[in-house]
Amino acid sequence: MHMKEENRIDVKINILDLLKNIVNKEEQYTIPIFIPHRGCPNECVFCNQRKISGMQKNVTVKEVDNIISKYLEYFDGNKKIQIAFFGGSFTGIDINSQIEYLKIANKYIKSGKVDSIRISTRPDYISPTILKVLKKYNVRNIELGVQSMDNEVLRLSKRGHDNISVIRASLLIRYYGFKLGHQMMIGLPGSNEIKEIETIKSLLKLKPDELRIYPVYVINPSELYDMYALGKYVPLTLEEAISRTYVVLRECKRSNVRIIRIGLQSTDEITSNNLGLVGPVCDNFAEYVMAKVVCNVIEENIKNKLKEDMINEIIIHVPLRYASIVVGPKKVNKEYLINKYKKYNLKIKLKGEE
Ligand code: SF4
After folding, report:
1. pLDDT tens digits, 148-185
2. How far is the CA of 225 from the centre of ligand 1 (A)?
3. Which ligand 1 atom sits closest to the C-alpha of 89?
4. What is the 3-state composition of the chain as percent helix, strand, coil, each rounded to the nearest 5?
5. Ligand 1 proximity of 45 Cβ (cutoff 6 Å)
6. Quick check: helix, strand or coil at residue 161?
7. Separation of 40 CA from ligand 1 center, angstroms?
8. What is the pLDDT of residue 276?
9. Ligand 1 in contact with 153 (CB < 6 A)?
10. What is the DSSP track for 273-310?
11. pLDDT tier at 354, thresholds 50, 70, 90
12. Which one of 88, 194, 290, 352 is separated from 70 by 20 to 30 angstroms, measured CA to CA?
């Protein structure tokens, strides 16, 4: 039986607009180079660098060169290519080593095979002197491991810097003309949803170009793992982590920040080497968060219209290519929506591109 149109809610969502901040990973190629921070003097509770530093060896310049040329063999010439020095804190390692690594990367920039260089570091390892070196060697993106803007959370996480360091470093990075990135963690010791909302609001005021959001994983060995074993730290459940990341993401909608990563993947350094991970570990964490973004907008649309009429049918119209994000991983959205709006006969209709 065909329902009358006036008794039907048609929901059409502009998915592209909804996810405008979330960057399509396929935009450029990245050559990741993991530089461990051996002898890092800091003691961040969630980090395993100190506990495993005896097992890590320095990456030689030759190895960096090899990694880059290996990656380049696999890339076609269609996208921009970036070399990314990840790991501990790039600007915390000895300055001569920094320069040696950067010189190798610059060889590829000069030959035109690579377009840009990215490094990640701590807010208290940024100074005008360091920035001048990074500028000289064509670094384009600097990512700061901020983690939180709440001083109590930073203290409990033993980060060894406060929120003023983040403000100072961010302003300097922007002043020297770099692209600024922030990394933020969800579920640190002493943190909660309100502190995370405050954190993202403070960060957005610093106008970062990019943002990464990670739920806290408990790595074994780490001090956080010891805290967890003693019952002094309770990791977030997957549902809590998704919901708290979603709330942070919602704040970003009003800004132009590009979300370059949500959650870790099994191929990441931390997850691939750690079998004993505890916490909201999930390979497709980002998909769950994005599905939640979409689901909430659908519900807002429905809620407003349900008040108006004698509704007996709801149809969610979805362009085919966004089907998976609307339906959600393991069909979470589909099952939730169909179940919740059972009495309105809710349907998700997939269709060709509009
Ligand atoms: S997170 Fe970075 S700064 Fe903190 S202990 Fe680990 S390597 Fe050092």
Report:
1. 999 999 999 999 999 999 999 999 999 999 999 999 99
2. 15
3. 2
4. 45, 20, 35
5. no
6. coil
7. 6
8. 75
9. no
10. H-TT-BSS--TTHHHHHHHHHHHHHHHHHHHHHHTTS-
11. very low
12. 88
323 near 15, Cβ under 8 Å? Answer: no
**pLDDT in the model for residue 141:** 97
| The pLDDT of residue 1 | 46
Nearest to 175 by CA among 134, 211, 118: 134
Is the shortest distance between the CB of 88 and ligand 1 below 6 Å?
yes
Q: From the CA of 43, how far away is ligand 1's center (Å)?
A: 6
Distance, in Å, from the CA atom of 201 to the CA atom of 217, rounded to the nearest integer, reads: 23
CATH architecture, domain 20-291 = Alpha-Beta Barrel (3.20)
What b-and-e string marks burial along 225-260, b requiring 16 or more CB atoms within 10 Å of the CB? bebbeeeebebbeeebbbbbbbbbbebbeebebbbb
Atom 7 of ligand 1: nearest residue by CA position = 88
Nearest CA owner, ligand 1 atom 6 = 47
Q: Look up the pTM and report it.
A: 0.92
Hey, where are the domains in the chain? 5-16+297-351, 20-291
CB 291 within 8 A of CB 332: yes
- Mean pLDDT (the chain, rounded): 90
49 CB less than 6 Å from ligand 1?
yes
Query: If you average pLDDT over residues 35-48, what whole number do you get?
Result: 84
CA of residue 197 to ligand 1 center, whole Å? 24
Strand partners, 119: 85, 142
φ, ψ of residue 241 in degrees (nearest 5): -65, -40
- 185, burial (CB in 10 Å: exposed 0-12, middle 13-18, buried 19+): buried
C-beta 161 within 6 A of ligand 1:
no
